[in-house]
Amino acid sequence: MALFLRWLLYALAIIFVSWVVPGIEVSSFLHAMFVVVIVALINTFIKPLLQIITLPINILTLGLFSLVINALLLMLAGYVTPGFEVEGFLSALVGSVLLSLFSLGISRI
What we know:
Layout: H1 2-20, E1 24-26, H2 29-45, H3 47-53, H4 55-60, H5 65-80, E2 84-86, H6 89-108
Antiparallel strand pairs: 1-2
Helix pairs in contact: 1-2, 1-6, 2-5, 5-6
Protein backbone atom coordinates (compact mmCIF):
# COMPACT_ATOMS: atom_id res chain seq x y z
CA MET A 1 0.00 0.00 0.00
CA ALA A 2 2.83 2.39 0.85
CA LEU A 3 4.49 1.73 -2.52
CA PHE A 4 1.27 2.59 -4.37
CA LEU A 5 0.87 5.77 -2.29
CA ARG A 6 4.42 6.85 -3.14
CA TRP A 7 3.77 6.13 -6.80
CA LEU A 8 0.68 8.35 -6.73
CA LEU A 9 2.51 11.13 -4.88
CA TYR A 10 5.39 11.06 -7.36
CA ALA A 11 2.90 11.24 -10.23
CA LEU A 12 1.25 14.25 -8.59
CA ALA A 13 4.69 15.82 -8.15
CA ILE A 14 5.42 15.35 -11.85
CA ILE A 15 2.10 16.93 -12.77
CA PHE A 16 2.83 19.86 -10.44
CA VAL A 17 6.31 20.32 -11.94
CA SER A 18 4.82 20.28 -15.43
CA TRP A 19 2.33 22.91 -14.30
CA VAL A 20 5.00 25.17 -12.74
CA VAL A 21 7.93 24.78 -15.14
CA PRO A 22 7.43 25.98 -18.71
CA GLY A 23 8.84 23.49 -21.17
CA ILE A 24 7.74 20.37 -19.30
CA GLU A 25 4.40 18.92 -20.29
CA VAL A 26 2.47 15.83 -19.24
CA SER A 27 -0.58 14.76 -21.22
CA SER A 28 -2.53 13.06 -18.45
CA PHE A 29 -2.31 11.52 -15.00
CA LEU A 30 -1.86 8.08 -16.55
CA HIS A 31 1.14 9.35 -18.48
CA ALA A 32 2.52 10.86 -15.27
CA MET A 33 2.27 7.47 -13.58
CA PHE A 34 4.12 5.93 -16.52
CA VAL A 35 6.78 8.64 -16.23
CA VAL A 36 7.32 7.66 -12.59
CA VAL A 37 8.07 4.09 -13.67
CA ILE A 38 10.43 5.22 -16.44
CA VAL A 39 12.28 7.68 -14.19
CA ALA A 40 12.63 4.98 -11.52
CA LEU A 41 14.10 2.56 -14.07
CA ILE A 42 16.48 5.22 -15.41
CA ASN A 43 17.58 6.14 -11.88
CA THR A 44 18.11 2.49 -11.02
CA PHE A 45 20.08 1.34 -14.05
CA ILE A 46 21.61 4.33 -15.87
CA LYS A 47 22.24 6.93 -13.15
CA PRO A 48 24.77 4.89 -11.11
CA LEU A 49 26.80 4.19 -14.24
CA LEU A 50 26.83 7.88 -15.19
CA GLN A 51 27.82 8.88 -11.66
CA ILE A 52 30.80 6.54 -11.74
CA ILE A 53 31.88 7.74 -15.18
CA THR A 54 31.59 11.43 -14.23
CA LEU A 55 33.09 11.07 -10.75
CA PRO A 56 36.17 13.24 -11.46
CA ILE A 57 34.01 16.09 -12.82
CA ASN A 58 31.65 15.68 -9.89
CA ILE A 59 34.53 15.96 -7.43
CA LEU A 60 35.88 19.08 -9.16
CA THR A 61 32.48 20.78 -9.09
CA LEU A 62 31.81 19.69 -5.49
CA GLY A 63 28.79 17.63 -6.53
CA LEU A 64 27.05 20.25 -8.65
CA PHE A 65 27.52 18.17 -11.78
CA SER A 66 24.93 15.80 -10.31
CA LEU A 67 22.32 18.43 -11.16
CA VAL A 68 23.40 18.23 -14.79
CA ILE A 69 23.17 14.43 -14.73
CA ASN A 70 19.66 14.61 -13.23
CA ALA A 71 18.58 17.11 -15.88
CA LEU A 72 19.95 14.93 -18.69
CA LEU A 73 18.20 11.88 -17.28
CA LEU A 74 14.92 13.81 -17.08
CA MET A 75 15.41 14.79 -20.72
CA LEU A 76 16.01 11.11 -21.52
CA ALA A 77 12.76 10.23 -19.77
CA GLY A 78 11.01 12.87 -21.86
CA TYR A 79 12.47 11.37 -25.00
CA VAL A 80 11.52 7.79 -24.12
CA THR A 81 8.09 8.32 -22.55
CA PRO A 82 5.08 9.11 -24.72
CA GLY A 83 2.92 11.90 -23.35
CA PHE A 84 5.82 13.51 -21.48
CA GLU A 85 7.80 16.33 -23.09
CA VAL A 86 10.88 18.16 -21.84
CA GLU A 87 11.73 20.94 -24.27
CA GLY A 88 15.09 22.28 -23.15
CA PHE A 89 18.00 21.83 -20.80
CA LEU A 90 17.02 24.73 -18.56
CA SER A 91 13.50 23.33 -18.16
CA ALA A 92 14.98 19.93 -17.38
CA LEU A 93 17.36 21.43 -14.84
CA VAL A 94 14.65 23.34 -12.97
CA GLY A 95 12.28 20.36 -13.22
CA SER A 96 14.86 17.93 -11.90
CA VAL A 97 15.65 20.19 -8.94
CA LEU A 98 11.95 20.48 -8.10
CA LEU A 99 11.43 16.74 -8.49
CA SER A 100 14.40 16.10 -6.21
CA LEU A 101 12.89 18.35 -3.55
CA PHE A 102 9.52 16.62 -3.88
CA SER A 103 11.25 13.25 -3.76
CA LEU A 104 12.95 14.24 -0.53
CA GLY A 105 9.62 15.21 0.98
CA ILE A 106 7.81 12.13 -0.25
CA SER A 107 10.49 9.78 1.05
CA ARG A 108 10.17 11.36 4.52
CA ILE A 109 6.43 10.62 4.67
